[in-house]
Design a protein that fits this description.
two-stranded parallel ribbon; about 140 residues; two-stranded antiparallel ribbon; about 10% strand; mainly alpha; single chain
Amino acid sequence: MKRAGALLTGLAVLCVLYGASVLSIIGAARWFNWAFVIIGAGLLALRFALPYLAKLGKGAKRALCLLLALALAFFVFTEAKIAYYARGREIPDADYVIILGAKVERWGPSVEYSARIRAAADYLKRYPDCVAVTTGGK
């Protein structure tokens, strides 16, 4: 039980630290930017619930472990897909490049939107016949 508590505490601290770094870089304007802080808080709550969970029956413990394993597997799978597609594949003969919109702050485009604009500008410098189309933006 002590090892599980230490593991959950360590994971909670890592999630909160990662979440804090995301918030410091990107900002707190969108709820999803808080995801790792919320996950860390949930892991910490689970850590403090361990003594109560220890009183559960064997079947309930197995179901909880299965649920946590499935959540972790889903998270790893999703992150792997995001990392795979984030590498990007340049299409040199594209007629159009679509710049997905994002929030525009009072001072200008958000961090995400600025990165998309810069990437599109670099692409358009290499392929000047391509037309840029921007979308959204709040």
